[in-house]
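[agent] plan:
  1. take the single chain provided in the ticket
  2. run structure prediction with default settings
  3. attach structure tokens to the ticket
  4. add a short note for the reviewer (M.T.)
[agent] executing step 1
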Amino acid sequence: MSFYRWDGDALILDCHLQPKASNDAFAGLHGERLKIRLTAPPVDGKANAHLLAFLAEAFGVAKSQVSLLSGQQSRQKRVRIQAPVILPAELGLTARPS
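[agent] step 2 finished; step 3 output follows
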């Protein structure tokens, strides 16, 4: 199993969040999930909003193209990125199937 899958032209990511980190970054794998470090605190949805903005920038899409599918109150999250323009090289993602 992988931390990502394609659903048509949308990319689904299974993530593990580390809030209140010193910087925003992809941090390898945490079990079967992509670990993401964020500077935002885990209060009042700030970490979730920061995660969506971070992923939108990393994948070259508008914030409206990134949505949280599950894990609103958890460190374990599933995120949908609609039609990503960029696939960050450090993640080793394969392009969507034709």
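[agent] step 4 note for reviewer: The chain has a mean pLDDT of 95.
[agent] ticket updated
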